[in-house]
Amino acid sequence: MKEEFAVIGKRVQRVDGRVKVTGEAKYAGDLAMPGMLWGKMLRSPHAHARILNIDVSRALRLPGVRAVVTGQDAKGENFGFLPTTRDKKPLETEKVRYVGDEIAGVAAIDQDTAEEALGLIQVDYEVLPAVFDPEEAMKDGAPQLHTHVENNISAQSHLGWGDLEAGFAHSDLIREDKFKTQAVVHGFIEPHAVLAYWESTGRAQLWASKQSPYIAYRHIARGLGIPLHKLRLVQPYVGGGFGGKHEPMGCDFAALLLSQKTGHPVKIVYSQEEVFLSGRRRHPFIFWVKLGLRKDGAIQALQVKAIADGGAYTSVGPLSILLPGGNLGVPLRVPAAKYDGYRVFTNKLLSGPLYGHCMPQARFAVESLLDEMAVELGFDPVDIRMINALKPNELTACGKQITTWGFRETVQAVSDALDFKNKFGKGRQGRILRGVGIGSNPGFVSGRLGGHEGSAAMVKLFEDGGVTLIHGATDVGQGAETVLAQMVAEGLGIDLTEVNVSRVDTELTPMDPGTFGSRTTYTSGQAVIAAVDDARRQLAEAAAAKLECNPEDLQFKNHRIFVKGSPEKVVSLLEAVRTRFYKDGSPVIGRGTAAPKSSKMDFSTGEGKQFPAFSAGSQGVELEVDSVTGEVRLIKLVISHDAGRALNPLALEGMQHGGAASASSQVLLEDMALDKGIPLATSLMDCALPTTMDSAPVMECLHVETDDPSGPYGAKDAGEGAQIAGLPAVAAALYDAIGIHFKELPVTREKVLAALAEKARREEGKS
Predict the structure, then answer these.
(1) Given 83, 238, 258, 299, which is the most exposed site by the fewest CB atoms within 10 A?
(2) Is the pTM for the entire model greater than 0.90?
(3) What is the architecture of the domain spanning 360-444+612-766?
(4) Cβ count within 10 A of residue 676
């Protein structure tokens, strides 16, 4: 029988909801300090050039300008993801590699003066040949962006399992095809922003919009050559991250250096155009996929080659190129596979992680080909997934140990909600064509990537029984603070309103890797529970002395501490707290830590059992296509995910709605197009981000709960699945509507009309 909780599993409102909707929440761009100066960044106008000289004298003579800094002012080293991939400078000093590369910063009394000063900085360049296509960049003789790699290959991954040759030999149907996905932006509303103050004591402080503050502050300390204990990074509220706010930006380094020079606080806030020039974007990919199936639908072999356009620097490239291959053996059974992935330097802004981190692109390619072959064999997309679905407690051919696992249940739930069996293949008549599709997603929970992976938390009780949760995890809008606060309230038997949640501050809060890899609820949550257990132990010892019982026999509920099975033997929580505070003179501070019980990942091969738990999910799409205008209109999205236990169904559904809407938009609308490295978009509207008018009017979330014993209160993850499954689901629904498989994203109206015209010509030719 499922355990009943007071707060866990309830549809509670977010603890930060009121301050956000009322405008009380302060983001980095809202902050100000006395004597504050405004900063602006000078960027390269060239895609590839050598810096010969920088003359800042004219800018310094402009009234109102207080300082100019260049890369020569940064005394540290290059920074980056791994020791072997540290190829980024705080500000470039010798060479620029994309339009928007950051060279210098200016501090002035106001933004207009700082902007004017940028035009007075004279930079002499030697323009170099540039390369914008990843396949061209890999060829001998192509312009080389960096000297530490060959053929511009910034990172590569090669992995495989099983007997590939035998798998294809045993296949009754083999198909090969090529797929392409485009670059898209993260689309967060809050741009990169920082307020920095370098004190005369040598302590550097910054308030910045980061989703992984402890990652960013290590990079900043390295780039500036200062000890970590002299750098303090405070995280205000974050207006969305989606993977785009892990790393430090040029503004972080420049603001600190400008503050050091002037003795004043300096604030820099990027415009949306600057975010597009020097932020991050989703990797565009080219996939070559070869798939073999038996006539009963069982997958026998899968071979994938991938080339990713990584842009000008490595960022987290080794992980980015590993993940598309690492997910090939989950959630469907693949007995033999081979993957060769290459992330390639080009003279474009950086590509990095975005919501699902390169797995959505791979699922689009592989599942699109799978669905096409399934129909050829007489199966529909639901059948083919059921035939090949992994089972609970199965050891996959690629060496992953599945434990709790509700994938088949998610497929069935989506199929039932869409009435898939009765609708599939039956909507290709008349002007308005209708289709249904399904996609699936793996879920890798809290993987161990290497280095610092553990989380820590503290719960500090006040003398009235209220609590402050002090932790290092980051809420970037997904509701993590609420879920962690629910764990505290449930464990201590108090109301959610009695739990305060601290902001991340590297000087005061425990270390935490940050928000990525579906790790916050799972690993940070385990640390919070451990901290609550420690506080409970301290309170139980105080209560046990009064109740004359063992501390281990006590339960906490409704502000009461009582003996299990004897609720009449009770001490109030307040009495126990005050006993500790007043009688013993000792505060109640619980401490807890947690780390993934897994092994370190090899970024080139994917080896290592780096995930302590696995989740999976499915997404269904119903849409219609106007065969005259080419317009595609979403009708219904159904998302089903094995989250272990839904700790807050309301927050979980919000995450899934956002992921599903974003995925469908990538298939149908979005494109961050570049012309010789220059972004053609200057606003979110230019990138064709969806509005409410573009989203499905009906979104349904169907929870599959497997209650994982390794997770906090049985939870696993909920964050990224809807994004991963969404791409193949929408592509499949398009095929069902018009009978055409699209191999390149986005599928615009123009592409739909062209495909329909070509299909009509072929059919006329046959007749």
Answers:
(1) 83
(2) yes
(3) 2-Layer Sandwich (3.30)
(4) 10
